[in-house]
Amino acid sequence: MLESKAKRALTTVAGLALLGNAGGAAADYALNLRRGVTSISHEAYDLHMLILWICVAIGVVVFGAMFISIFSHRKSKGAQPAQFHESTTVEVIWTIVPFLILIGMAIPATKALVAMEDTSNSDLSIKVTGYQWKWGYEYLDSGVSFISSLATPKEQIFNEQDKGLNYLLEVDNPVVVPINKKVRLMITANDVIHAWWVPDLGMKKDAIPGFVNEMWFNIEKEGTYRGQCAELCGKDHGFMPIVVVAKNEADYQKWIADKKSEMGAASAGADREWAMAELMERGKKVYTSNCAACHQAGGAGIPGTFPALKGSAIATGPKDAHMKLVMHGKSGTAMAAFASQLNDIDLAAVITYERNAWGNDIGDLVQPSEIKAAR
Amino acid sequence: MSDTNGSYYVPHGSGWPIIGSIGLFTMMQGFANFLNGSGIGSTVMLVGFAILLFMVFGWFRTVINESETGTYNRQVDKSFRWGMGWFIFSEVMFFAAFFGALWYTRVLVMPWLGGGDPGTHELLYPNWEASWPTNGPGDVGGAFTLLDPWKIPALNTLLLLSSGVTITFAHWALKKGNRGSLIMWMIATVVLGATFLGFQAYEYGQAYSEHHNLTLGSGIYGSTFFMLTGFHGLHVTLGTIMLIVITLRCAKGHFTADRHFGFEAVAWYWHFVDVVWLGLFIFVYLL
Amino acid sequence: MSTAATHDAHHEEHAKGLLRWVFTTNHKDIGTLYLVFALTMFFVGGAMAMVIRAELFQPGLQFVDPQFFNSMTTMHALIMVFGAVMPAFVGLANWLIPMMIGAPDMALPRMNNWSFWILPFAALMLVGTLFMDGGAPAGGWTMYPPLVLQTGDAFPFLIFSVHLLGISSIMGAINIIVTIMNMRAPGMTMMKMPLFVWTWLITAYLLIAVMPVFAGAVTMLLTDRFFDTSFFNAAGGGDPVMFQHIFWFFGHPEVYIMILPAFGVISAIIPTFARKRLFGYSSMVYATASIAFLSFIVWAHHMFTVGLPLTGELFFMYATMLIAVPTGVKVFNWVSTMWKGSMTFETPMLFAIGFVMLFTIGGFSGLMMSITPIDFQYHDTYFIVAHFHYVLVSGSVFSIFAAVYYWLPKWTGNMYDEKLGKLHFWLSAIFVNVLFFPQHFLGLAGMPRRIPDYSTQFAGFNEISSLGGFAFGLTQLLFVYIVIKTVRGGSKATDQVWEGADGLEWTLPSPPPYHSFTTAPEVK
Ligand code: HEA
Ligand code: HEA
Ligand code: CUA
Ligand SMILES: [Cu+2]
């Protein structure tokens, strides 16, 4: 196979160029588009190869002619310049032939595009919401919902630890979908534009605040597929991966059931009184995974961009205003409305935490019931 | 074009451009600081604006002097004409951006939010119905009511259209060399322009009143309404100032029956402002 | 100041020292100012690219904070596009158009000075944001809301510097159109104009048509942030995607603004060194006009993933693909000009040939991206980054190098060092490929653009790309050295400079007199 040979040759060249470099954990230097695991990704791949080879062929002809000319029609070889400088015939030909080639490309491209954009008759709908910088998923049929954020430890990012196999491409809660089902994603965003993209699924769609975009895929093979946010969305744009796990129907159903009971457990106790220590402990966790990206672990923020919460007027001021801000966010800034992302306990915990951590020491606490009342 | 080529006027150095740049820079620097909430911002902005004004007057004084002393030949005159024409075209494109925004939101966004795009409507705004005018599903800026297009706007249309006629009369008078009539028609044009502005200001006052509650913050309707009419108003203001200057120049005896580029440039500009208003009247007020 | 413009011997009466440059109304002085400014900005933007490449040299966060990385990407692009490439072409236009059409100067010399002297202030305003609270703009050069609305204190400065750049470009463009339409020597009909003049004429139209639209777009950003408007906010009935439409209505013609003058340069150089007339002059003109026309109806190919209606996607796909036809005509014409010529390969010709090859490669990847169903895969990956650097760096920038080598002897009266010039070409041509070719692979393998850190599978090619980047950057120091050396002295250039050179500028002495043509030449 020509293609794999070419690939090997190029890999060798690349490898040589890397000579002396010890790094490169996963030394699988992919050269080409991934073929993927859905019908659309296959179609995209085939089209990609078709157009690529057409371009290569045109390139060979054009550059070939140019190089022949460069080698033989040079003054040092005594070439005398010819006098011709126009020819309607050839000019018409080289206008029409490329045009025909383009039509040849447009036909399969149109077919593929029409198929890709057809989101009707889906078996399962998932609402996907982009947040700075994590993804929220809500299974519209079963009500399962969760937030999915980067699982790679900071130490790896800051080179204090060896990087893992799926460095930057791992999340705490992957999206699980059944195989051989047409899954429709309803994609939106909460703050800025993001884009949901898993290369192996062959499709990318922007998540636009205030609008819902649709895309679909039908995975053929069980497995784990990884992707990333593909639209610049601020500081941690490079750190909001996507992981899709495709399971067979039975495993999928089991996962749904598990997820449901997990959700029940997480909101269990929303009605009881919580003690300070409990809230602080849970609050710290919530803070680390939801707030620290901006306000930093020590609550010091980033001057000019994200305000410090340590000693902040709001975090040390009246409770109501603090709750309101965290729950409803501040429009026009990166501060999102967390009421839709966190449950009552988590909100109560994180607000309590902010009021008492880093020497804020207000001493009061927020009960989940207060959050519920404030919703 | 050949006959005059050798004597094309090439000025030797000029300080006005750099003064203009410093003025613009200072003004924008000040405005930006003002927007960021800095105290001295507005002062700096005013200083910059003063420098800019100084430049505009100085530069035009130089050019007018050169023109009146016969420095410019036909070819230079033609350069000015081309230049003014393309400048006006650039202004047209600037307005096109805002008209484009108006059409895009009305023709495409409204239906998407309001049901034409099922996903968006059902998931995000199930209870909202789209109809123009609107301040969007978030009821941004609160409920508002419209201004009656057949009152002030219609009157203003009449005013601007008549001013287009009066300036043409002025032009004819200039071509005939009838200076008294020229000045009279110019004054009429200025008065019509100024009246238009007065009405426009009054109308803004009404819009912002509690009764209408139509503001720049009234969702997409308020945004497009005020940005379009506002930028137009700004252009009318500029145009009126230019008309006043031209009237004064006429009074001073500038321009001849066959050479009066300054006059024509302002007339073109005025017609452009006129045409934009017609677009506004139709697309912003009527439809 | 003298009033008449027919100047005798004493026309070098301009101010001396620094003020000469501040007050000048001379097209050559202003051309020089533009070129020097552009070169400076090329280094500023290049230094930022070096920060990007250094951070991307290895996975993990090494040198800069992610927010600052985004600022670097944003500022790098803005500075390269608006500070380096566009001003460089305007500089070339200033130097060459009057000389090519037989005019004494540009049509509106004072405005010409203003067009230039706005630029340094705009650049100052933009670069100044690096030191502000919240850092420099970091929302990408495309400035998409809502993200760009989160910019700190830099935000209004960003907007106003764009306004200034726009004012400058519009005035520059008006001047060029007026000069070309009104200042041609007798007998210089439109269809006798050199292609560089033609391409610039069409470019100037594009500029006047789209810069005001860009100004409008950023004005809407400003009012959305500070004056409660809702243009880009769905809650108020607006749409963030609307900004993208307006931006790309400007942005796509903008990329042709950066390539059409390059086409003109190449169309001047290849015939000279092939010693053969340009093949298909009139089809070159029509092709340029077609590209310009098409550039207005393809903008949404940058937005295939925003959720356009299917019909929209189809329309923009077809329209975009069509651009390959007129562009192909150009490429074929250049090759045909070389065909059966009598070629020599001085530095300008080398850069021109490099241009034809590498630009075409960039064009091919552009064509691949125009196919909507596969752009879903390419979009916002390094494949795009590879595409546009091929057309911009080995395209536009190479053509600027070619132009400088080609006309520098005319401008200064001195020949440049041919050996060093060739060295500059070969190093640039090799390293630009080491720098950008691997980025195709990265993009296809799935590496998104605008990220400061990446998963380990992308490590190898990033390393190669960074090394290529450093080498390419260092190579450019050589260019500065060559230019300075030539300005300082060197063997004297003849008036015609190149054996095969043809055109009015070569009839003037080298260096040309202060006022190019005080009496108009007769063109037959
Ligand atoms: C000088 C600048 C320049 C030029 C000339 C071009 C030229 C082209 N560009 Fe490029 N483009 C950019 C600068 C440029 N581009 C930039 C800066 C971006 C990214 C912006 C951003 O997001 O930041 C971009 C992005 C971009 C995209 C968006 C990708 C995405 O974000 O998903 C697309 C999609 O269609 C595209 C297409 C094209 C096409 C079809 C051409 C065509 O004009 C190319 C035509 C040329 C040829 C095809 C080669 C020669 C022809 C032949 C030899 C004839 C025969 C050939 C055939 C019949 C195939 N470009
Ligand atoms: C005309 C435009 C232009 C030019 C000339 C360049 C030139 C270069 N560009 Fe740029 N680039 C863009 C336009 C341009 N770029 C645009 C529009 C974007 C998109 C931005 C966005 O996403 O918003 C972009 C984005 C972009 C990225 C992607 C960033 C990201 O997605 O996060 C990268 C990464 O490699 C890159 C690299 C380079 C390099 C290495 C060069 C080199 O060619 C530069 C070479 C020049 C120098 C290096 C300067 C000269 C030398 C010195 C200063 C001496 C010192 C040298 C050393 C220390 C080695 N560019
Ligand atoms: Cu989210 Cu990028
Ligand atoms: Cu484009």
Q: Structural class of the secondary structure composition of chain A? A: alpha+beta
Number of helices of chain A: 10
Large-scale geometry of chain B: globular
Q: Write the CATH fold name of the largest domain in chain A.
A: Immunoglobulin-like
Q: Summarize the helix and strand pattern of chain B as letters.
A: HHHHHHHH
Helix count of chain B equals 8
Q: Helix and strand succession of chain A? A: HHHEEEHEEEEEEEHHHHHH
Number of strands of chain A: 10
CATH topology of the largest domain in chain B: Four Helix Bundle (Hemerythrin (Met), subunit A)
Given the helix and strand composition of chain B, which structural class is it? mainly alpha
Number of self-contained structural domains of chain A = 3
* Distance separating the two termini of chain A: 63 Å
CATH superfamily of the largest domain in chain A: Cupredoxins -  blue copper proteins
Kindly state the mean pLDDT of chain B as a whole number?
89
Instruction: Summarize the main sheet of chain A.
Output: 5 strands, mixed
* CATH structural class of the largest domain in chain B: Mainly Alpha
The helical percent of chain A reads 40-55%
Average of the residue pLDDT scores of chain A: 85
**Percent of residues in beta strands of chain B:** under 5%
Strand content of chain A: 15-25%
Chains forming the largest contact: A-C, 110 and 102 residues
Task: Report on the architecture of this protein.
The complex is a heterotrimer of chains A (375), B (287) and C (524). Chain A is built from 10 helices and 10 strands. By secondary structure, chain A is an alpha+beta fold. Chain A has 3 domains: 39-74 and 85-117, no CATH class; 124-267, Cupredoxins -  blue copper proteins (Immunoglobulin-like, Sandwich), CATH 2.60.40; 270-374, Orthogonal Bundle (Cytochrome Bc1 Complex, Chain D, domain 2). In chain A, the strands form 2 sheets. A 5-stranded mixed β-sheet of chain A has the order 3-2-1-5-8, with no helix packed on it. In chain A, strands 4-10-9-6-7 form a 5-stranded mixed β-sheet. In chain A, 37% of the residues are buried. Chain B folds into 2 domains: 13-71; 74-286, Cytochrome c oxidase, subunit III, four-helix bundle (Four Helix Bundle (Hemerythrin (Met), subunit A)), CATH 1.20.120. Chain B has 287 residues and is mainly α. The model of chain B is unreliable at 1-5 (pLDDT under 50). Chain B has helices at residues 16-35, 41-68, 74-116, 118-124, 152-176, 179-208, 219-251, 261-286. Chain C has 524 residues and is mostly helical. In chain C, 67% of the residues lie in helices and 0% in strands. Chain C has helices spanning 17-23, 27-55, 66-101, 109-128, 154-182, 195-226, 240-257, 260-274, 281-295, 310-322, 324-338, 347-370, 372-378, 382-412, 418-445, 459-488. The radius of gyration of chain C is 23 Å and the shape is globular. Chains in contact: A-B, A-C, B-C. The interface between A and C is large, with 110 and 102 residues.
